């Protein structure tokens, strides 16, 4: 399917979603919950998080049937993967990229807590700690983590070949090994039920190049939001990636779900990666908080610099259990208002 027809489909579905009445969120704490790095959690904390993810993957979808052909949306987990697929062309390489993904992962965190009795916060993956040795990262631990790589599967060399990829097959260990219907959607923007295993295609080379402290600090040192955001996302080329692409292609390579722009949230590591991107943004905001709580710019549609800019009033929609918000509603992660976000981080990056 071409980019243009995907975009038209997205416009139609966004209009439909906007006309749907969405329930108000349940009341919640007004004290920010504290997100911690995966390896600092205790083993019982790690297993309670993974159990909550499995629980969300087992609860039935609440997405209204937007189209009878969208048969792959079966579970609450699929609700969010589907939400991401539907909006892919308007949430990447745009000014509200970080704001949308902030709200998306915060919505997931609330689902784990409200629907699966998880009592912690969303953990993050500080990839700077693993950039020099990706495969030894505790996030890939077969017992206390998310499992590791898939066996090597050869691909035809070409523009989609992620440099240094080492896997591509189904994960062989961890919580989702040996299960053939972990993923129901994709590849790409396909919504038809398509049972698949979880695939990883680790590239230690790519992670080393884009997830190190040097790349992170270069990003943090940018002085305005437009450049900061551009540095995080990089450009859609393996030769000019940023920390965002570093995590996606370092884990997902060419064949893994994490490397698929549409269906990447199908790998639970997505939310640990995006929590750390969000932590990097919050670290950047905290360096000059008064100004950076209102600093937002960049295109409204994927790489489209001919139309308007994202602003504090740009709308954000994060799936069927989330109220529609604006960018302004999520600029302060600790705001804890009646809508918006209410969490913080145990530590931040500093220059
Ligand atoms: Cu995304």
Automatic annotation (TrEMBL):
It comes from the Eukaryota. One of its GO terms (molecular function) is metal ion binding. Residues 92-109 form the Tyrosinase copper-binding domain. Residues 1-23 form the signal peptide. The keyword DNA-binding does not apply. Keywords: Copper, Metal-binding, Signal. The keyword tRNA processing does not apply. This is Tyrosinase.
